[in-house]
Amino acid sequence: MGEIMEQTVFSVSDINREVKMFLEGTNTFKNIFIEGELSNITYYRSGHLYFTLKDASASVKCAIFRYKYRGVPEDLKEGDLVKIRGSVTLYEANGSYQIVADFLEKSNSLGLLYEKMEMLKKLYFEKGYFSDEIKKQLPKLPINIGVVTADTGAAIRDIINTTHKRFPNVNIYLYPAKVQGEGAAREVSAGIEFFNRMNGEKQLEIDTLIVGRGGGSIEDLWAFNEEAVIEAIYKSEIPVISAVGHEIDNLLSDLVADKRAATPTQAAEILIPEKEKLTDKLESKKNLLSKLLLNRVTMMKKELEYRKNNYYIKNFGNILDNKKFDLMEKEQKLSRELRRIVQKSREQLDYRKQRFDRINLQKIILSEKENLKKKSAELNQIMLEFFENRKNELKYKKARLSKYSVSDILKQGYTITRKNGKIVKRGIELSKEDKLEIEFLDVKKKVVVK
């Protein structure tokens, strides 16, 4: 038959899948930072970015899906030195590995700031600071608004102009604070705490806070990523709108606030309804309510007039007297029927009592009890004989079947050889290089005919 060799054979798909599972299953290759030089940059209309990252002696293929939503620059060019963050994976179709990234920045730009922001974002996400379940509802029509921003910037002017244009009756209270540079985070958080304290002491009745500033670079906006500001917004009893003018979507103040606005102007538009539109809406509802009430009154008048002319209302006294007489008559009939039923029940009870007195119930019960015991013993004996017969019959059938079982054949020293899942009966069925499976009593072995 030739030499028999044991071997484990993988398909190409199997080995690629195993390698992919290994790479994606270990933390060593997740969320790693890699620095290198860009080449083969391709922006696709689908929103995906593909490129190669290389250094002096090696290169690796990379991809960023939906890059526009991840703050990836759109002016990347060949040779740019960049840093990415991503995870290693394997493309099963051709067996090549690549980096799927979610962050890219040009080197020597703002890497440390973004890393710190990602660390804080993860920390506060795990604490539950960003949960929608804890966000407070904004009032429908706030009367007193607290604003924490610079007193000389465009943000406060935009908020005042937009608010009073939409609803002049709203009061605006400003807490002037630095919004960039050293001490900015401390002053912004102090402003939030100030308005909450004034509300608690009943000195003010602030309905909503707007915390923000105009646009700027990430360094200028960094105060709104600081822990002091995040904690102050989270602990605020007053609803907070984060209104920092910026294009990126990951300032931490936006995530923890009860509402996010892209600009201070938009914050005022979100919060304050237009007085004219609100007045028109109220007037429309007032007119609708008046019509509904008028229709209801008209219908009730008609209903009242109808009831006034109703026969039963006009003749209520006579109808009531007739009902009283009917009730008295029915009461007399009921009383007579009850007496009859009681008398009949007494007679039946006396009759049954006399019958039971003539029967010795105790003897009947004892006799029936003895019969029941006897029949129970007979039934038990029949069941025991039945099960014993079935047991012997099964033993006999098992003994006959065991002569033909595979395990008994193998116990006698024989083996079973299969080719493509079918049992080989004659040697002529075999050829060189045929793959066989030989089944022994304790194990199955795969062999190749040499």
UniProtKB/TrEMBL annotation:
Predominant localisation class: cytoplasm
Domain Exonuclease VII large subunit C-terminal as annotated: residue spans: 129-444
Stretches assigned to the OB-fold nucleic acid binding domain: 10-102
E.C. code: 3.1.11.6
Domain of life: Bacteria
Keywords, alphabetical: Cytoplasm, Exonuclease, Hydrolase, Nuclease
Listed CDD domains: ExoVII_LU_OBF
Location in the cell: Cytoplasm
Record's catalysed reaction(s): Exonucleolytic cleavage in either 5'- to 3'- or 3'- to 5'-direction to yield nucleoside 5'-phosphates
Top EC class, one word: hydrolase
One Gene Ontology cellular component: exodeoxyribonuclease VII complex
Biological process, per Gene Ontology: DNA catabolic process
Entries under InterPro entries matching the protein: Exonuc_VII_L (IPR003753), Exonuc_VII_lsu_C (IPR020579), OB-fold_nuc-bd_dom (IPR025824)
Pfam family, one: Exonuc_VII_L
PANTHER family: EXODEOXYRIBONUCLEASE 7 LARGE SUBUNIT
Homology family: Belongs to the XseA family.
Quaternary structure and interacting proteins, as annotated: Heterooligomer composed of large and small subunits.
Record function comment: Bidirectionally degrades single-stranded DNA into large acid-insoluble oligonucleotides, which are then degraded further into small acid-soluble oligonucleotides.
Name this polypeptide is given: Exodeoxyribonuclease 7 large subunit
Organism: Leptotrichia shahii
Species lineage: Bacteria, Fusobacteriati, Fusobacteriota, Fusobacteriia, Fusobacteriales
Gene encoding the protein: xseA
